[in-house]
Write a structure and sequence with these properties.
The protein is an alpha/beta fold. It has seven helices and ten strands.
Length: 224
């Protein structure tokens, strides 16, 4: 790979800081903006503004997700910038995670190349484990009991739901998987989980049994 290029990393959290440090350690000129001051950037240069970071950059790398509200860049910096403004300051390809349709359309109108790296199936599978671990960690911090023997429900059985249910079972929790897909439910049963079919918009399942914690992995409003 050609390392005589400049990479600009904007926004994000500790993951972006680690990436900036990794790229700098591997010989890339790396400029960063919008990350927490507590993050160690190693040989990467922390810039005073996003324009300086993007100046002469061969590529711009945005975090996952690129935006939390669909409008502004996901950043730990107090200063907020609109996602679309990035296209005004660089003609370099833009890489980001879970890019909004609006941003894609704006880039297309300007004939700019944007790549959503979260569309990678391999990345999503690998990302499922830390996401599931994070959800379990939050539950453990807020529950007044251990997960061993706890009555838990996992709504959805996609990449994250399956990983989450497996981890909960290994921890000794009682797991009920709620999903619409019969094939997914069959896999869940084979793993040792109880199952509930929530097809046709059925929601009464949530009140059929008292759960200590419910994990919703469905990207929709399931509970009122």
């Amino acid at each position: 790979m050609n390392k005589n290029i400049k990479l600009a990393l904007l926004g994000g959290d500790a993951r972006q800081s680690c990436l900036a440090r990794f790229l700098a350690e591997h010989g890339y000129e790396t400029a960063a903006w919008g990350m927490s001051d507590s993050g160690c950037l190693g040989g990467a240069v922390r810039c005073r503004d996003p324009m300086s970071a993007m100046a002469s950059a061969s590529a711009v790398i945005l975090p996952l997700p690129a935006s939390l509200d669909g409008v502004t860049l996901n950043s730990e910096n107090e200063e907020r910038i609109k996602l679309h403004s990035i296209l005004e300051y660089t003609e370099a390809p833009v890489f980001g995670g879970r890019l909004s349709e609006g941003f894609r359309l704006a880039a297309s109108a300007r004939k700019r190349k944007v790549i959503d790296y979260f569309e990678s199936e391999a990345l999503q599978i690998k990302n499922a484990l830390p996401t599931a671990e994070g959800a379990i960690s939050i539950a453990m911090q807020n529950l007044s009991r251990t997960l061993v023997g706890a009555r838990t429900a996992v709504v959805g059985y996609g990449r994250i739901g399956r990983t989450l249910a497996d981890l909960l079972l290994r921890l000794g929790a009682s797991v009920t998987v709620a999903a619409r897909n019969e094939i997914q439910l069959a896999y869940a049963q084979n793993s040792g989980a109880k199952t509930v079919n929530i097809g046709n918009g059925k929601r009464e399942w949530a009140f059929a049994e008292k759960y200590d914690v419910i994990f919703n992995t469905v990207p929709a409003r399931i509970f009122e």
